[in-house]
Amino acid sequence: MRTTIFKLLGLFFLITVISSPISAQKYLTKTGHAYFMSHTDVIDIDGNNNLVGAVVDAETGDIFVKVLIKAFEFTLATADTHFNETYMESDKFPSATYKGKIPMLPNADLSEDAEYDVETEGKLSIHGITRDIKQAGKLIVKNGEISIKCDFVVSIEDYKIEVPKLVKDRVAKQVDVNIDLTLLPKS
Amino acid sequence: MKKNLIYLFIILCAFSVETVAQETDLESLLDEEMGATENKVFGTFLSTFILNNHSVEVLNKNGINFRISHKFDYLNTGAEECFGFDKSTVFMGVEFAPTDWMNIGIGRGTFRESFNGMMKIKILQQTEGSKNIPVSLVAFGEMVYRTNNYINEDLQNDRIGRLEYTSQLLIARKIGNLFSLQLMPGYVHRNLVETNEEKNGIASLGLGGSYKLLKRLRLNAEYFFVQDHDTPTQDYYSPISVGMCYQSSRHSFEVFATNSTGIASNNHIAYTTGNFWKGDICIGFNISIIFSVKK
Fold it and tell me: Is residue B84's pLDDT more than 90?
């Protein structure tokens, strides 16, 4: 009888300990920065987004980034309407997302200030199309905050972003994208 | 033995539940944190004009819009007049946006030889999500100075009499992805009118709509209820227009059929002498070229 009770108690503890998340430290930002530049001989068009959301799980290295398309700001007149209405169709696809992993993150000592060259692998979704990508970037730990910086190139054809023939030489086929996120520990 | 296996099974279940929870955790955590966002509604209309009348769209800061409008004469003038091709009214104007919410412009039209100056102020932008603004609201004002000759020589120097003013409130809502509606109550005041009986002030209520056919092509239409002029010598009718609007990266084009040959606001609202339903219809087109002043 006693052994049965002990066994059950032991099992109970085991289950509760295992099923409660092992103090997974998450880092979060709602004001991350995304910038893109379409450079052609005719015209440069660039957009700025200061409301990028991102969350990182330091234990597993999982990262999720969400970029609201309507939050991009432009200096070029009417660019915001064209960008949203005809290129990105943001009513249909309100955000671009990245769901991936930074494999070296769980191994990093986040209590020490340091800079790391990291790799990330995951799925990038833009304009309703999802592609597997692998990308290098920088991870900077400073004062308990994680900064992630990444420069990459998006081939707009890959994401079915259509450019009308008339303006073919005003929009670059390869667009330079720059991501700069500073994530704070989430309590 | 059986009991041990059952325990093992329960433990394994507990493990798998935990890892699944972790994966969707990140995405839903971020969604929860970011909350509902404020979404501005873009593209209520494809250009700063519906067809005859201004739309709630304004140019962004530093934008310049160079506009040419052209209306032929009525199609029912017959083969002798080449179905209206031989006569036309033309308008050229330029608009500038010193801020994101204000456009100012000047122009000149051949209809009643009118110089015009206009100002368009964006008061509200339709927004969805965490901040709900159901309509876009624009205040519009235009002043026209006519330089045409008077039959009565004494009036030639009456400069004040040559002024006409239009004020309008443009209220528009984009409904879903395909449809936009604009309501435009307005008032046209003419300092000098042709007869004593004729009213100086004409109230109007315009209804405009846009239907999306393709990403860059819309079907537009306008109808105006116009207050009676009380002119014994001339009948004036409601301006009606139907046409298409196409937008490219730097231009927008409107091609339409209308009974109104005037182009400036006062002229197209209060001086429509053709009756749409009797076939007094002319073809008109607007070309807008939009670019930015780089700083």
Answer: no
